[in-house]
Write a structure and sequence with these properties.
The protein has eight helices and seven strands; from the N terminus they run βααβαβαβαββαβαα. The protein is 40% helix and 16% strand. It is α/β, with parallel strands linked by helices. α1 (24-30) crosses α2 and α2 runs antiparallel to α8. The chain has a single domain (8-194), classed as Spore Coat Polysaccharide Biosynthesis Protein SpsA, Chain A (Alpha-Beta Complex), CATH 3.90.550.
Length: 225
């Protein structure tokens, strides 16, 4: 990996938005075209929020799906990020490997997120890094029983093994592992992680009182429940 001067890193897990290969659960009821457009909007929102972070202290990494071409990812995401392929047989292995590579490169704190969170913000990321000045770990629970963000200052493989990924037990199982490791934990506010059309409807309903939300406005122009 590249030589760094910053001590904080954000790891973003992302896929290139090929139609039919992103948000497949959402596509089952909304169609592949809409699901792909939704993914693009959410991902671009995420990238824009991350670019608001202070680059002198926080480095941004895209860990892209191994099926994707680095060139396509770079041309889509544009500048501001370093790019690395994901490595591992399942989500847990991929996350563990990404964190391991980051810490081996000299970073002291790292946060990992995905690209399907319409409410992710630079303020949430800053809160996570600020909390790790005193706490050992930060976690952001999602409404589906998973988590949308995990922040660590050290890595242990058990945090990512024997987890029932893509179930409503992920957050609880991960919290148990962090607690058993005697980690002091800061918990962020809960967010909606959109995987299905019902998730999307819930999110849009929660935003109707704030129609100035840019992403909500864009989504409303292409989707009506």
């Amino acid at each position: 990996m590249e030589k760094i001067t910053q001590r904080n890193a954000v790891i973003v897990f992302a896929k290139y938005p090929d139609e039919g290969k992103v948000k497949t659960r959402l596509a089952k009821t909304t169609g592949k075209k809409f699901a792909t457009e939704f993914y693009k909007l959410c991902a671009q929102h995420t990238f824009q929020e991350l670019k608001k972070l202070p680059e002198e202290t926080i480095r941004l990494y895209i860990f892209f799906d191994s099926d994707n071409n680095r060139g396509k990812i770079k041309s889509w995401v544009n500048s501001g990020f370093l790019f690395h392929p994901q490595s591992g047989k399942n989500l847990g292995e991929k996350m563990f490997t990404a964190f391991s590579e980051i810490f081996e490169n000299g970073f002291e704190k790292a946060v990992i997120i995905g690209t399907d969170l319409p409410d992710i913000s630079s303020e949430i990321i800053i809160e996570a890094f600020s909390a790790m000045k005193k706490k050992d770990a930060v976690i952001g629970p999602s409404t589906d029983g998973g988590y949308y963000l995990l922040g660590l200052k050290s890595i242990r493989k058990e945090f990512f093994t024997n987890i029932d990924w893509s179930t409503d037990s992920v957050y609880e199982q991960t919290m148990d592992k962090l607690i058993n490791a005697n980690m002091e934990i800061h918990t962020l506010k809960e967010l909606i992680d959109i995987d299905t059309e019902n998730d999307l409807i819930d999110w849009m309903s929660s935003k109707k009182q704030n129609e100035s939300n840019t992403l909500f406005s864009k989504m409303s122009s292409i989707y009506t429940p």
